[in-house]
Amino acid sequence: MSVPLLEVEGVSRSFGGVHALQGMSLSVAEGESAALIGPNGSGKSTLVNVVTRMVDAEAGAVRVGGVDVTRARKHRVAAHGIARTFQHVRLIPELTLRENAAVGAIHRDLGTVRGTVRSFLSGRLGKADRAVAEQALDLMEVPASVRDRNPDAVPFALQRQTEIARALSASPRLVLLDEPAAGMNPAEVAMLLRLLRAVNAAGIATLLIEHNMEFVMQAADRITVINRGTRIAHGTAQEVRRDPAVVEAYLGARRAGGEESA
Questions:
Q1: How many CB atoms lie within 10 A of CB 136?
Q2: pLDDT tens digits for range 91-112
Q3: pTM of the model
Q4: What are phi and psi of 100, to 5 degrees?
Q5: Residue 207 bridge partners (DSSP)
Q6: Which residue from 129, 171, 191, 214 has the fewest beta carbons nearer than 10 Å?
Q7: Per-residue pLDDT tens digits for 140-168
């Protein structure tokens, strides 16, 4: 069997005595569209933060292409082909959309975003980096007419498209997308679905972390369901939709009223 592109095995992490992750495992294959879903507070974002080394795992292992990156520096994880987006768009307001996208092309070789901005100021952005960024903006269908505008001068959906283009500019093998459909209307969600299919068609794997169930059911080949830090189901959209444990996890969360963020 081929080695998974991303393999999370038995990962655990606690915060102040609360078990955010308990022996969590999942895998993503090359070029696959995968999804991680679960009620708020189930540990989804914590898992993404462990994979991208924003948070340390207390137990278990994270491997990329068979290489253990559990304790690697953040920029080393990026160098192995992992990029991500965030729940809230994090574009640099002083830069244009074109420049924001290009951040991904040079950030893969630098340790911090601050260093990336400094490299812009010192003229380190080369022609190859600009070309990669333009290709990513093309793939995400960001119109050329707005690429020299700053983020606050364009609609939210274009900001999200640019953020994904920035991740793609790092030439990743896998992009982790943390709630990419959040704040989008139905037409924009449909557009996002089409664009992410184009990303997969280009051979880039995606792992969606998302609350919009209908979006996930259409976008993902395989879905992993997490609740209270533990994997409770895994399979195709139809298999997951019918799983009693999944139904109970969501119904139980609704009965309980408010939910904590993941």
A1: 25
A2: 988 889 998 998 888 765 554 5
A3: 0.87
A4: -60, -40
A5: 34, 176
A6: 214
A7: 999 999 999 999 999 999 999 999 999 99
